[in-house]
Amino acid sequence: MFRFTKKNKKDTGRVCLHVSAEGTAIAVSKLKGADLELQHCEFFNALQLADNPDSIKDFIADNKLTGANCSLILSAHEYQMLLTEAPQVEPAEMCEALWWRVKDLVSFDLHNAQLDYLELPEDSEKNQGHKLYAVIADKSKVAAKIAWAEELGLKPITVEIPETAILHLVSDLCSDIVGTSVLFLDAEQSLLMLMSETKMYLSRTLKYNYLQRMEAIVLDLQRSMDYYESQMGKPPCLKVIVLPQQSHDTAIMQTLVENIGVAIETVDINDLVKTNGPLTIELQQHCLVAISGALRLDQKVKK
After folding, report:
1. CATH superfamily, region 167-266
2. Which percentage of the chain shows pLDDT scores above 70?
């Protein structure tokens, strides 16, 4: 997604930053052998940053991260994701062809937008032809985010969206041919992804506060699973993975268990990722997207 610089530093891990309305999450990974280990994870809430704007810069200096490779995850208001039919053009011409297909749906200033895309698996074409997701970002906000990371002393190498970041964490959990629904809950903008054999087939953005509309979460989940099975011709979803980690007695987990006729699970990142110390539920809830982004490697590691 939105690669913008040449990488001239060995990919041994990275710093990942994700800004939301609540604050800024930072996660740091380091390559050990063939595996990425989570070295640091911190959340700076908005009030804390207002009182001490240098908190993140101090964190980077204290942990000797100056000059480290950096991934940036876009916030909900900085991008759009649109499902559209794939133009029949060569890959080099895809972005330009897609632009003419989606430009009337873009909410940003057309002169201030940049486009990338996510291809869907080949077997997602039943009844609808080959489709893909066009991802449109606000160019000025992306540039500002890059400049901010550089001011912090980091080396930005990748800009991506929460959907692709989360895939780094959950792909291996969705290796079965039967479908798995991944539900990422966030008060600002929740995400719903339908997965099979580690691949994403369907992604939906839920632009409402799930805590205030739990019945809407149930309905959107049911409709998405029906579409995945009937329109894409995939085996039915037999499991829902809820992220970030939830206590099983929370209202949202109880609502899902009572209304969705498949297994409802949640995931403790401590069981998936090597860390220097256990991550609390609260820290996971604030930092899951940043942690996921930090688990990205842009090249295969020799084992």
Report:
1. ATPase, nucleotide binding domain (3.30.420.40)
2. 93
